[in-house]
Amino acid sequence: MRKVRLDTAHAHLPPTDESMKCAVFSGVIQGSRDDKVITMTNNDARGDFALSQEQREQFDREGYIGPVRIYEPEEMEERWRSIRRQLVDRSHAIYDAEARGSATNIANYDRHLDLDLLSEHIMNPRIVDRVASILGPDVLCWRTEFFPKYAGDEGTDWHQAATFANASKKPQIAWPSEDGEPAFGGTITVWTAFTDSTLENGCLQLMPGTHHHMNYDESKPMDFQPETLNSTEKEGIKRGFFGYDYRQLQKDPNWKPDESQAFPLVMKRGESVIFWSTLMHASLPHTGSVRDYRMGFAARYVPTKVKVYPNTDDVVEYGGEIDLSKYGAVLVSGVDDYGINRIATENQRGYPFRIQ
Fold this sequence. Notes:
The chain has helices at 53-62, 73-86, 116-122, 125-135; strands spanning 22-25, 28-31, 64-69, 139-149, 155-159, 173-174, 188-193, 204-206, 233-234, 237-240, 263-265, 271-276, 281-283, 294-303, 307-308, 314-317, 320-323, 330-333, 343-344. It is α+β, with helices and mostly antiparallel strands. The protein has a single domain (22-46, 63-344), classed as Jelly Rolls.
């Protein structure tokens, strides 16, 4: 997959402390409010594509649902062709190209904030209705990332993420405490196949039912060693974590993921899988042809009560660094009664984030 080498990305942002004040600048609303804990009301969201009761029960039990069809294959092919051309133009991207890391390109985090087709994608009712039926009616999209895999690329380590502090060492999302106890955390990830995702080109692997217990401690140190890329075998499979070894975060150093409980998720272009980030997941290495690259696009969602990028104004991870001064989360459903996050009301080209 080296032929169409595309830059990849992630992002973050700090809240303010002024009570109930809002200032609008460059299409971004900044505000805050004292922390307030609410209970999610999962059945409040009743869009055309909301999960059925049976699907909700499956999701609660297994931690994922999918694949679900978001775009027809021909439409996805055309959309991806257009997006790929537009990605080269960074004139409105919120992160500098220099943010590119040596293992992955975090400068391409959050391109939904400057490319209309990606802005439209994160607001797609086929996605948002399903997510809102899990998280409740008031939902933010707080990050998007590309996940390319090219011929010869290693698979991704088994991992879970609750705070996303794993590489940066700073929590990137913070759920309010529950009854004085730290919240479990996590985000809903919607991983969309922009190309076919196959056994040969490195499809996702999931381990159903593992989303209620964290096997990893994201506060532990994890060494960045980009020289290890594509050079380490784990249980007979070439794997890594974009220059890191996720095993360093294991709570029990002697524990090993039970791969007999996992399955590979083959997806057609235009399909999505929706899963908790705390679900054990990984990907296979790309053993296919150079032409057959894999491109995934992940959009991450949380309720509006979750703080995004608390107490930080930059992100340093994967050998790169991004400045969050232009960042804003996007309200994709409901209302934001908390005001603890900076909210982007339109993208950097003026495309409005209108709830459908």
